[in-house]
Each structure stands twice: as C-alpha cells, then as structure tokens.
C-alpha cells in the first residue's frame, strides 16, 4: 500500500470517528463500539483492496507484460549472428550482450533467464518485426538515432554498447588510414543500416567517389569482402572485430584507426507501452549499477545484509522497487544472479572471446568510461 493511500485511510477513519463522537450516538456507547468495530474492518478491507489494485495496476497497464507472462517467454529480436552480441552455437544456444539483456528481462518478469524466444533478424527487417508485434524487444546492435527514436512505432530504452563506425582493409593493400582512400574504392556493407548512411556522408563530404556493395545478410557481406569483392568492409567497429573472427584468415585484415560516427547501440521496444519500456530500461540499468556497486552473480545473495542501502535496494532487501512495474521485489536480484552484472556479461561475451578485450568507452564512469545510469531508488 502506498503511503498516500495509507494516510488517506487514516484521515477517513479519524473524521468518521469524530463524527460519531460529536453526534447523538455519543450516549449510546454500546452501539458506538459496534460501529467502530465494523468501521475498522471496513477500513482494513478497503486497504487490502488498494494494496491489491496498486500492485496489479502496472501489470494491467502493460499489455506486453501481461502477454509475456501469459505466453511464458520473452520474444526477443536479435541479429542473424554477431559474435559477442547475439550469436547461436550449433545447438541453437544464443549468447552475447544483446542476448543477456533479453535474458535479464526474462529473469525479472518470468523468474527464469532461459525463458526467451530469439528471432534472428536482418538489419532491414528488424523494426517491422517490432512494430508488427512479432517480437517485444529488439536487442540487436541497433544504433539509437533521432529518426528511429522519433519513428511512430519505436522507443529506445538505453545504451548497452557505445560504438562507432570503422573500416576494415586487407593488410596487403598497404592502407593504414582512411586518408589513403582513393576514388573508385568499393565498400561492402549491410542494407538498412546507419552504416550505409554514414558511409555516403563520409565519402561525399570528402569528394571521393565510391562503389557501395550492399547485402541484406551480414554473412553475405563478410563473404563478399573476404573473397575480394570489395576493397573495404565498413560497419560498427564492434561488428568489424566480431566478423573478423569469421574470416578465412583473420590475421590478413586490419581495422583502420579512424572512427567516422557515433553508434550508441541499445535495446528498442514498441512505442506505447511505457511500463514495458521501463522494465526493459531498468533491467539494463540494474546490470550496469550492479557492476558499479560490486554486486555479482556469485555474491548477490550475501549483499542483502550489506550496510549500503543502495546495494540493499538492488538485491531487493530494502525498498519496493519492483512494485512500480507490477513485479515482486526480487526481480533485480534474479537479473544479477541469473545473468550477472554488465561487467560479467561483457567479460563472458566480448572480452574473454577475444573480440574487444579492452572496454574502451564501455567502462563504468567511475573507471573512466561513459557507462552512467540513473540510480535505482
Ligand atoms: N548499428 C548499425 C548497424 C547494425 C548492423 O546491422 N550491423 C551488421 C554488421 S555488424 C549486422 O548486425 N550484422 C549481423 C546480422 O545482420 O545478423 C545500425 O543499427 O544500423
């Protein structure tokens, strides 16, 4: 029950008792006590009703939460295979930091991080899959831009990887900087991406003529570049590092030092369900803040008795953070225990796999990076 509702009920009770005492009933003490008794149980009933309604209100408000709980799994749109971000092994097990975000939401709303159905999507088809209702979270190395966010159907909830666009070339080309790019250069890339647009801006603003070679499927882009169809392969630098691992001879290629754009990658939800949007946003924030406070999948339970109230709140030992979303108070504890904090997820998926061992900007603000999330309180 919220403090406001509680205060309201006490006020009603007080006024009613005053009324009883100042009226004719004053003399009929026996009757009065009966009425007070009835009144008290009435107030208790109303209180229970209020408590029940406030708890279920959030769930009622969110059609997506209700449907997800009914279905028993989170419907998550991912890439068609990008190591470190969203990638399936031979048995169809998905891993990656984008995958972990969806697992975190499943742990929060369903109690089990494994209850996720992953839908691989090309860059071109990803937004339609979300707006048409095929998926409920798009967690697919997707850049947050004004036009995408302002799109009638889409809402970005945060950033889980700060990236920028780069270029890969064959070492044998002798190119070590984009300043050596010459007219007629051919560049392989994915259709339906910010990459295509940035590449156009980059070459046009420098007056360099270029030949775009674009494919819908990432594997086609990689294969085309790898077979020598293009002089350069351009995409997010994380993508270049990840796709390089798939090439015939990764050592024959290098990523040039220049970064030509800002690519803040993050999860997207359908516009119009603000409770669901909040759940996804705060599932991500919990992972980042847990790292900030040193809460890990292995020590989360023991943090329940920590002296720091901020830590206690994150593991559900203090406050009622879950109620605002219509969730229980262990929602965030489950995320940390089952999926881990952001640092654990980064290490497991991106650092230990050799994709990008250095966290760069994706380090906590307290350690010189730009990962800074609002407080969970
Ligand atoms: N971040 C950019 C690029 C996203 C993108 O689609 N990148 C490609 C190249 S790394 C990709 O994800 N490929 C994997 C796939 O299509 O499954 C965007 O949001 O437009």
Based on the model shown, name its key terms.
D-Maltodextrin-Binding Protein, domain 2, three-stranded parallel sheet, elongated, alpha/beta, binds glutathione, five-stranded mixed sheet, 3 domains, disordered N terminus, 377 residues, 42% helix
- Give the ordered list of helices and strands: HHHEEEHEHEHEEEEHEHEHEEEHHHH
CATH fold-level label of the largest domain:
D-Maltodextrin-Binding Protein, domain 2
Question: How many separate structural domains?
Answer: 3
Mean pLDDT: 90
Oligomer: single chain
Strand content: 5-15%
CATH H level of the largest domain: which superfamily?
Periplasmic binding protein-like II
Structural class call reads: alpha/beta
**Strand order within the widest beta sheet:** 10-9-11-8-12
Question: Rounded to an integer, what's the Rg over CA atoms?
Answer: 27 Å
Task: Summarize the biggest pleated sheet.
Answer: 5 strands, mixed
CATH architecture of the largest domain: 3-Layer(aba) Sandwich
How many helices?
13
């Amino acid at each position: 029950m919220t403090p406001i509702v509680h205060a309201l009920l006490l006020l009603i009770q007080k006024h009613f008792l005053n009324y009883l005492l100042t009226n004719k009933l004053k003399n009929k003490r026996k009757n009065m006590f009966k009425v007070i008794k009835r009144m008290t149980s009435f107030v208790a009933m109303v209180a229970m009703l209020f408590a029940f309604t406030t708890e279920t209100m959030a769930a009622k408000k969110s059609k997506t939460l209700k449907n997800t709980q009914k279905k028993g799994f989170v419907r998550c749109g991912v890439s068609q295979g990008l190591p470190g971000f969203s990638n399936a092994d031979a048995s169809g097990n998905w891993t990656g930091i984008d995958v972990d975000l969806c697992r975190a939401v499943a742990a929060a709303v369903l109690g089990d991080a494994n209850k996720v159905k992953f839908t691989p999507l090309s860059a071109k088809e990803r937004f339609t899959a979300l707006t048409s209702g095929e998926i409920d979270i798009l967690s697919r190395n997707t850049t947050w831009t004004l036009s995408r966010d302002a799109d009638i159907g889409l809402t970005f909830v945060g950033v889980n990887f700060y990236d920028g666009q780069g270029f890969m070339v064959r070492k044998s080309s002798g190119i070590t900087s984009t300043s050596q790019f010459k007219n007629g250069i051919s560049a392989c890339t994915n259709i339906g991406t910010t990459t295509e647009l940035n590449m156009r801006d980059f070459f046009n603003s420098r007056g360099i003529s270029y030949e775009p070679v674009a494919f819908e499927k990432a594997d086609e882009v990689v294969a085309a570049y790898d077979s020598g169809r293009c002089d350069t392969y351009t995409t997010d630098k994380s993508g270049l590092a990840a796709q390089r691992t798939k090439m015939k001879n990764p050592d024959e290629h290098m990523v040039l030092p220049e970064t030509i754009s800002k690519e803040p990658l993050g999860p997207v939800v359908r516009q119009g369900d603000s409770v669901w949007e909040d759940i996804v946003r705060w599932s991500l924030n919990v992972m980042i803040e847990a790292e900030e406070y040193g809460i890990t999948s292995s020590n989360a339970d023991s943090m329940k008795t920590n002296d720091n109230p901020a830590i206690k709140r994150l593991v559900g030992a203090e406050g009622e953070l879950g109620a605002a979303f219509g969730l229980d108070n262990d929602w965030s504890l489950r995320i940390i225990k089952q999926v881990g904090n952001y640092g654990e997820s980064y290490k497991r998926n991106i650092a230990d796999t050799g994709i990008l061992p250095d966290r760069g900007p994706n380090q906590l603000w307290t350690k010189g990076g730009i990962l800074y999330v609002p407080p969970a309180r």
